[in-house]
TrEMBL record:
Organism: Dioscorea cayennensis subsp. rotundata (White Guinea yam)
Residue ranges of domain Disease resistance N-terminal in the record: 5-91
Keyword Nucleotide-binding (UniProt): yes
Domain spans labelled Disease resistance protein winged helix: 434-505
Every Disease resistance R13L4/SHOC-2-like LRR domain range: 557-875
InterPro entries: Apaf_helical, Disease_R_plants, LRR_dom_sf, LRR_R13L4/SHOC2-like, NB-ARC, P-loop_NTPase, RX-like_CC, Rx_N
Domain NB-ARC as annotated: residue spans: 176-348
UniProt record, GO biological process: defense response to bacterium; innate immune response-activating signaling pathway; plant-type hypersensitive response
Highest taxon in the source lineage: Eukaryota
UniProt cross-references to Pfam families, sorted A to Z: LRR_14, NB-ARC, Rx_N, WHD_DRP
Name of this protein: Probable disease resistance protein RF45
Similarity field: Belongs to the disease resistance NB-LRR family.
Gene that produces this protein: LOC120267243
Record keyword Repeat present: yes
Amino acid sequence: MAQSVVSIVVGKLGELLIQEVNFLQGVDEELRSLHNEFQWFQAFLKDADASIQGGNERAKTWVNQVRDVAYDAEDIIDMYIFKIHRHRRVSHGCFSSLMTTCACHPSRLTILHDLGNEIDKVKRRAVEISANRSKYGIESIGATSADSLTSNEAILPLSWKQTPVVEEVDVIGYDEHVKTLVQLLLAEDKGRYAVISIVGMGGLGKTTLAKKVFSNQRIKQHFACHAWVYISQSYRDRELVEAIANQLMVVDKVRMNESTDEEMKKIVHEHLKERRYLVVIDDIWTRGAWDNIKKVLPETINGSKVLLTTRNRDVALHADRRIPPFDLKLLGEEESWELFCKKAIPTKHSEHCPPNLETIGREMVAKCSGLPLAIVVLGGLALRKEQSEKEWRKLFKSVSWQLREGEDQISKILALSYHHLPYYMKPCFLYFAMFPEDSLIDAEDLMLKWIAEGFIEARDEETMEEVAEEYLEELVHRSLIQVAKRNALGGIMECRIHDLLLDLAINEAKGTNFLLVTKTNNSEGSITLKNTRRLVLHGDQSWEVARQYPIDSTRSLRTVTFFGTELKNPKIPQILISMKLLRVIDLRGKAIILPKAIGELIHLRYLNVRVGRSKPVPSSIGELNNLQTLQIEGYYSTTGLPSEIWKLQSNLRHLECGSSSIKGQPSADSLSNLQTLSGIKAGKWLFKGLEKMTNLRKLNICRIHSSYGKALSDSLGKLNNLIELDLIAGLIHEIPTSILTASHHKHLRVLHLNAKLERFPEVSIECLLTNLIKLTLESSSLKEDPLVTLGELDNLQVLELRYNAFVGKEMVCLEKGFPQLKELVFNHLYSLEEWKIEDEAMPKLRKLVIDNCSKLVMLPYGLRGITSLQELNVRGMPSAFTQRLRVNDGDDWDKVRRIPLLNVIDSKY
């Protein structure tokens, strides 16, 4: 974590020295000296961080001191930038009534003098901290840490793993997993040895499951050689080879000691070459570790197998991409309860749980969120207690602490995944500490905040958004974050974090001044915020708690985020103006009034607020030159956004509003780097502005009149990077077909049209629809069957026809049409009477929704031939329709009986 902070400071100092080279004369040498000192910190921190993981208190203290001085240096730099920005505004006449030498607007010399003094203080502290490395024997720390070792070095021995806390007898719901894995291991393989990987977060029972498979009698009989090795995060090649050799009884101790590393590898390799073997590699962390292991495994074609357990999905894919990793999931509610009872109740049967304890017991188990390790530890704690409601309630109150800090210290097991992250991804994980327990997290919004915080840097031709998406996927692959929902393009739409990992993030974040959560019932209101970078407010009354913090302690804040339903005082944001260094403000809740002085927060990069009806956005917002993301929710003002929005120019990347207009006209270079433009009303700006926004990836325009059709069509033809397009005209206005035939939209993947369409264009190589993944048509009033044309789209996976998108009576899915379609929605198609499906149409369809199509008589006969269908939802349909779907005796029952998930809700037609 400290390494990330220091890297940010090094970057800021470097930029400052380049950009302000003329203004900084007189203090430039001091700044360069400080820059050099922090570069040395940066070089040393990698090894020191590794030592902290090993419990070295001297290294921990030293790293904390480095982090704190880095925070102070960052404050000095950002405050200087604020002062010099204000100085230049005054000098250029922005405050004509103020003298440049007045107390509130100091002169250049005063600014430089103050900067020099502050740099001197920080520099002296930095030099002292550097000297402490030798003074307290920290110089050699990390010299043999795992991160600094070559593939042939390590500090920890490789050994048999200790018996896991989740014992074999305790495994609940794993019987089917064992059968599946046994079948995979016994399967014949025509190529080299196959690698089957069990992937999941720490504490899921990967090792326990692997041991059950390893000890299976069929497995013992099938493989001539068996070996199980545990890979610590640090290991030596020699010990790995010796571990395998010992279990295979290849050589005796004397010969092993006399053999070189290469001789040992050759001995093991030759022994396995003649036999069908099974090698289990338990708890492997890196791809490099696998590359070292596979050197001793012969690639003979005899059905040999390797079984891996890992928290990192990338390692599994690297080992063998032919076989998908086996993802071990969290336990369900009943499985969790059964496992708990096996540990907590002497009879080890859930039906023997005393009735008066079941309610409180289930509440305790829910705290574990399906993690077997936590459930077993909790069960052991309950077993040691008297079986009374009083004792269990006492345990319930302390369950979070017991799981985190108790003698079993589950947090240490989970923390391994965090400590193993690259330094630049640690702040991304800690950021999850701000979210309320069990909340669904908007992935796109999360990544935009990462970017605003400075955690993400563009790489080569990748945008910061693309890098952020890679980081989030990496956290998922490392089993630290769970995916809740993906969008049509396969990207993460919503995610969540396990409660115990959330506890880990909160404690790490609080302990490093990274973030502090303040709740309505928080008993920590008197805690100082000194050096805390981010304040998170949970609950409607949390502002009142936050007001207890001294003003001086809030000046280092970079982020203020509010999770609640409403802000009691709409003028509360005025408090934020005193926090000059803020980069992120997120105040989604009841509508507020943005203060006129919002433009003073020149460091602001992310602003998300809900503005009340007829409460104009102040024109000073145009002064936020560093703003990257502007999200204004619930904006109903008839005055629209001020024309000063166009002044934001190159830094603004995402502008999202709630059906708002923008005054004025864009300049030639306005918003040239804008990637998202959403919720903006069509207006005169379309004629001069849209075509210049060539970096747009996502575009949503509403209130489109017919008069804007040509300008819109011409502009869209120039937006070559567009991926998602959403055009809303409504029931009256018609969108010209030319919009759908622009020839440059090779990247367009998602299209939503809410407008009348005269007709649908023929699918051709020039049509922008060719590469679509998802298409939604709404209020289109098409008279010709759109399925005939749309069935030719080879890449289409999701099709939604809503609210009279089609006003004819009959639709047909032609033979072999929709080759990739996975989801089909018919919603409020009031004229549709008959739907036909011809042979081999929609061969990959998985989900079908029929909703409020009141004249549709029955499901098509061709539905029987779609064997891929997994889910059918029928809602708002007449009784005559739903009666045909009655179990066993309905006329259409044979068409749907094999569909696993069938949800039919009758209507009152």
